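User: I've been trying to design a sequence by hand for this structure and keep getting stuck. Would you show me what you'd pick, starting by listing the structure so we're on the same page?

Assistant: Good idea, let's start from the same input. This is the structure you sent:
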């Protein structure tokens, strides 16, 4: 039987070796997506996320608004779909690279958003691409997290 002190030392050793963070990061890669059943660009964004290594749980609903409100997404940041990974919220066509960066950095924000449906963002590749920003948001407001 291992005593408490030995157990804590073993956890510390595993963490130092990077075993625990990798296990946590792998667990956090399951994403729940709330979307309208008829949304084609949401399907395209999901392909982008799967190709980037995320496992998706899809919840199709006729009205995503109640979930956006429940998760605390400011109305000014709304897009067509909302997703969660762990305690983070991702609104709209957020690139997988930004999601991975947030999960790696563990920033103290509620989530990330790409408001609207910007041509050139993941899932919106048709048409002429436009520059856009991924915004980090919390209860105090939003700020630019990454320029694209």
């Amino acid at each position: 039987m291992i005593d408490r002190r030995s157990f804590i030392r073993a956890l510390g050793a595993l963490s130092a070796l990077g075993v625990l963070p990798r296990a946590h990061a792998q667990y956090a890669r399951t994403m729940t997506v709330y979307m309208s059943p008829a949304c084609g660009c949401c399907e395209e964004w999901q392909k982008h996320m799967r190709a980037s290594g995320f496992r998706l749980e899809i919840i199709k609903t006729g009205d995503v608004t109640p979930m956006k409100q429940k998760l605390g997404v400011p109305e000014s940041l709304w897009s067509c779909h909302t997703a969660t990974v762990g305690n983070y919220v991702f609104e709209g066509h957020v690139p997988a690279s930004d999601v991975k960066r947030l999960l790696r950095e563990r920033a103290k924000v509620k989530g990330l958003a790409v408001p609207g449906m910007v041509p050139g963002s993941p899932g919106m590749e048709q048409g002429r691409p436009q520059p856009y920003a991924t915004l980090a948001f919390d209860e105090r407001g939003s700020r630019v997290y990454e320029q694209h």
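That's my pick for every position. To get oriented when you compare it with your attempt: Confidence is low (pLDDT under 50) at residues 11-27. Residues 29-147 form a domain with the Glutaredoxin fold (CATH 3.40.30.10).
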